[in-house]
Amino acid sequence: MNHAPALPPRRLSIAPMLDWTDRHYRYFARLITRHTWLYTEMVTTGALLHGDLERHLRFDEAEHPLALQLGGSEPAELARCAKLAQEWGYDEVNLNVGCPSERVQKGAFGACLMAEPQLVSDCVKAMRDAVAIEITVKHRIGIDQIDSYDYVREFVDQVAEAGCRTFIVHARNAILKGLSPKENREIPPLKYDYVYRLKRERPDLEILINGGVKTNDEIARHLQHVDGVMVGREAYHNPWLMAEWDALFYGDPAAAATREEVVRAMLPYVAARLAEGNNVRHVARHILGLFQGVPGARNWRRMLSDAKLLDGADERLLTAAMEATLRTRDARD
Ligand SMILES: Cc1cc2nc3c(=O)[nH]c(=O)nc-3n(C[C@H](O)[C@H](O)[C@H](O)COP(=O)(O)O)c2cc1C
C-alpha cells in the first residue's frame, strides 16, 4: 500500500467525524478536492486490537493524504495501533484529545486527557518510537471552567516535548459534565485568538485551527494567522464549499470538477461497493448535500433518502436523481 510521494501540507483538512467521515464520504470528498488532508472517524484502540481490522482500516488509495484518528490513552496499545496504521498505509496518526462524550470519558481518553498532558506526552512518544509516519494531536483549548490561555500553551509545550509537531486546536473548551457532545460543539465560545497566539508564540509548531468555520473567506482569514484550517460540519453538509479549495489554497486550479462530473465519478465506486455487499444507502447518505444551493436540490435529497427508492437500488439511482435535479435547475434558468 504505497502512497503518493509528495504529501501536501495540511493547509486544509476535513475533521474526523464519527459516523460521517467514513470511507464512502472520504472517497466522495476526494473527488471534489485533491489536496485537502482527510481524517478517518475516531477508532478506539480497543476496537482495533480486538475487532475487525478490515472494517476499521480499509480505504481506497485515492483517499491519500489520509490520517487515522485514534482514541485511547494506553501508550503501548496506541503504539500497536500506530504500527497497524503505518502497515495499512496511512500518512498520519492523530490522537483524539477533544471528544467529550461520556462513553469516551469512561474509557479515560478524549477531552479528559487535556488534564493529563504528561500521559498524552507518553502516548505520543510511544507512537513516535513505533512508527515513522507523523503523530499529531487534536485537542481543545481547555476543559470545564478553565479559561486561561496558559492552560493550552502549557499542554502543547509538554506534548511537543515528546516530539509532536502538529496540533489541531478545536478553539473552544470541552465541558465534561452536563453538555452532550453536540452541545459541546456549539455552546462553549470559540476563542480563535488563543490559537493565533499559540502560533505566534510557538512558530516552529504546525498549528491548525478548527471550529465553526463555514466560508472560504473565513478560511483565508484564519490562514493569515495559522498553518491550516480544519473544517468539519460545513464540509459535510455543504461539500461543494470544497470545490474551490485546491485553486484557492493549494494553487492548483486544474482540480475543480463540476457536480455532474463528481456524480459520474461516483458511479463506478458505488457499483464496486454494491458488488462487495454494501447498499446504495451507505454511500447515498453522505452525498445529500452535493447540490445544496442549486435549484432542484430537493429532488436530489429526496430521491437519495427515499427508503422505497433505495431499496434494492443500484448506482443508477444517482444518475436518475441528478437528472431530476438538473431538469429543475435548467427549467429555472
Ligand atoms: C457527527 C460528528 C462526529 C464527530 N466525531 C469526532 C471524532 O470522531 N473525533 C474528533 O476528534 N472529533 C469529532 N467531531 C468534532 C469535529 O472533528 C470538529 O472538531 C467539530 O465538529 C468542530 O468543527 P466544525 O465546527 O468545523 O464542525 C465530530 C463532530 C461531528 C459533528
What is the helix/strand order? EHEHHEHEHHEHEHEHEHHHHHHH
| Helix vs. strand class | alpha/beta
Shape: globular
Number of strands: 8
Q: Determine the strand fraction and express it as a percent band.
A: 15-25%
Query: What is the helix fraction of residues, given as a range?
Result: 40-55%
Give the distance, in angstroms, between the N- and C-terminal Cα atoms: 47 Å
The strands making up the biggest β-sheet line up spatially as: 1-2-3-4-5-6-7-8
Mean model confidence by pLDDT: 93
Descriptive labels:
333 residues; alpha/beta; eight-stranded parallel beta barrel; 16 helices; 8 strands; 15% strand; disordered N terminus; binds flavin mononucleotide
Question: What can be said about this structure in brief?
Answer:
The radius of gyration is 20 Å and the shape is globular. By secondary structure, it is of the alpha/beta class. The longest helix is centred in the C-terminal third of the chain and has 17 residues.
Structural commentary:
This protein is of the alpha/beta class. The chain contains 16 helices and eight strands. It has helices spanning 23-32, 45-50, 53-57, 75-88, 102-106, 117-130, 149-161, 192-201, 216-222, 233-237, 245-250, 259-275, 280-284, 297-304, 307-310, 316-332, and strands spanning 12-14, 37-44, 66-71, 92-97, 134-143, 166-174, 206-210, 228-231. Strands 1-2-3-4-5-6-7-8 form an eight-stranded parallel beta barrel, surrounded by five helices. Helix 4 crosses helix 6 (117-130), helix 6 (117-130) runs parallel beside helix 7 and helix 14 (297-304) packs antiparallel against helix 16 (316-332). The longest helix is centred in the last third of the chain and has 17 residues, at 259-275. The radius of gyration is 20 Å and the shape is globular. Bound molecules: flavin mononucleotide (FMN).
